[in-house]
Amino acid sequence: MTAIDTGPVPLRATPLGRIRKDYFSSPLSTAVSLLCFGLLLWIGWVLLDWGVLRATFSAEARQAECRAAGGACWSVIANRWRLILFGLYPYEEQWRSALACIAVIATMVLSCIPFLWTGKRIASVWALGFATFYLLMKGGLLGLPLVREEQWGGLALTLFIFTATAIIGMPLAIAFALLRNSTLPWIARTTGAVIDAVRSLPLISILFTCAIVLPFVLPDFVLQEKLYRVIAGSALFFAAYQAEIIRGGMQGVAKGQDEAAMSLGIPYRHRVARILLPQAFRNALPATINQFVITFMETSLVVVVGFFELLSSANAAFGTSEWTFAFVEVYVFVAFLYFIFVFGLSRYGAFLERRMATGQR
Amino acid sequence: MTSILKTAVLAGGFVLSAVSAQAASETLKTVQERGALNCPGHTGSYLGFAEVDDKGNWKGLDVDLCRAVATAIFGDPSALKIIPLSWAQRWPSLQSGDVDIIIKASGGTLSRDTELGLQFSNSYYLGTTKVMAHKELGLTSLADADGGTICIPAGASQERQVASYAERLGITLETVAIEKTEELEDAYFSGRCDLYAQWGPVLAIARSVSENPDEHVLLDDVLAVEPEVMIVRQGDDEWLDIANWTLSVLLFAEQEGVTSENVDEMKANPPSNEVAKMLGATPGMGTPLGLPDDWAYNVIKKVGNYSEIFERSLGQDSPYKMPRELTALWNQGGVLFPFVID
């Protein structure tokens, strides 16, 4: 951000002078500043004291040692981290689950590199990353023992549900958005009705229906694994919201552009892929990132249909006689994991916005 | 949210019980073809009944009963697939065939029996609603607690049980209802409530893992009793028989002193005709149930009798040290009993 100069240029303020001007310009401002700083310092101190200074880190420590130390008991993480990260995945095979998580995170990082930002490149990076993830998790090939989806758990499952939802949901959302903008009224209206219907249902009931009610109505060969039904439901939900976000972005693109392109005889697919969508995505970027963040958080809802994702494996981690007292530490650890991903996601969003904004100047 | 789920479950149960009833008589065959029994676990952990150890293995009373049924069928406790289920998911998952049996600290109730189209085994556990109090208050029974503050799980049956029990005693209690168990227990242990009403095992476990178990007492009052049962789909009587007889064998073995350690000796020199028949030393135990004759021997040998299961999950060999109380055998002051092996 650059400041706009309106008056005579002030003398360059020293850091100390700026602090005085910003926070201590009047008695009231001084009092409020001191109070807030004091409060922040106090909170910071309490957290530091609890989380680090008086905390217990040793894996051998149990309740008694932790209580004696008086701070956080990170021993629970030292003992149960594999359960939190990998859930009920077979213990000897958990290295695969770890590699799979790394593969997906690497894919996410790779997709931040502008060099890969063409449709084909980004699609192949994701196809490769996702295939690696799936192969490692499921096995049954290359001498890896088969691990069925119902044994997946923890962070790996959360990542799988999130990425699969995004990968299926995004193209579906684009299709919904385009169909809703169709010039044929019955297509536009039907799509609109579908989107509105999905949006008017709570996600939890969609998941419950997909996981538990569908087996009553559909024959077995349609059903497949419960996990995929749940992902399908969650992708549909994601698509309904994301479609509206994209449509909002499309409305920001001047109609004249499309008409101009039409008059030049540019075919529909190019008008959509090269003119409409890139601008629509740029317009819709903040809302899209928001939607991704929400989707990541909402993966924890699959707990109601019996999946052992991050939050339920955390629950299992402190759900044993030795560790029931340490639930705060486990929740803090899980919150930290969520934070890393969501914070990364929003920084990535901010980076994209800055980059795309350069094209607009 | 819970009520939406409950409605969905009820509706699902209504419509679909008819559909699954025809398929259900095949449960044993389905299980044998699959090669494993599908039994419910928990999304997370339910202390003492279904917990996960450091390596991701399930343990607990409910899980061991699942192991016993799996062993009865396959002679192998590992022929078991534990499927994590949330509470709301229990009945639809049973109806749709995701699991073959529900052993998940669930009581037998009228609506489950009739409206949901389910069927119960005999009770394997008597769950009582009890009250814990801070010892320094010097209470011996709830009648002395007039005017006290009581923590209860929000939206659970304990709310109603506490209200009606207090009314019967003619005392008033100020209730603090909290939904999440960790928060609820924190409220009690931090002294916000004088009393804490909860399903007995949860209460006893909360006390045993607390900082100073000796500072808390369980009052003698029993506010309500809920018999926990194994639950199957209605209409497959033979399948229910297997569940019932597995439980009966566990109890009969305890009553006759047959344990996983002395079972071989007992089989070689059976003290009675009944024990001989149970362990398959004389024929006739398996065929009527569609199982091998030594199924009960396998169960005792590989899983243990009821007492062994209880003690390692909840009792003296566990960290919780819970007494058997009502869940003891009839000859030890409890209400459990085996059926007669003739």
Written account of the structure:
The complex is a heterodimer of chains A (361) and B (342). The mean pLDDT of chain A is 84. Helix content of chain A is 73%, strand content 0%. Chain A is built from 15 helices and no strands. Chain A is mainly alpha-helical and 361 residues long. Chain B has 342 residues and is α/β, with parallel strands linked by helices. Chain B is built from 13 helices and ten strands. In chain B, the strands form three sheets. In chain B, strands 5, 6, 7, 8, 9 and 10 form a six-stranded mixed sheet that branches. In chain B, strands 1-4 form a two-stranded parallel sheet. In chain B, β6, α6 and β7 form a beta-alpha-beta unit. Chain B is globular and about 65 Å long. The interface between A and B is large, with 44 and 43 residues. Chain A: InterPro entries: AA_ABC_transptr_permease_3TM, ArtM/GltK/GlnP/TcyL/YhdX-like, MetI-like, MetI-like_sf. Chain A: It is a multi-pass membrane protein. Chain A: This is General L-amino acid transport system permease protein.
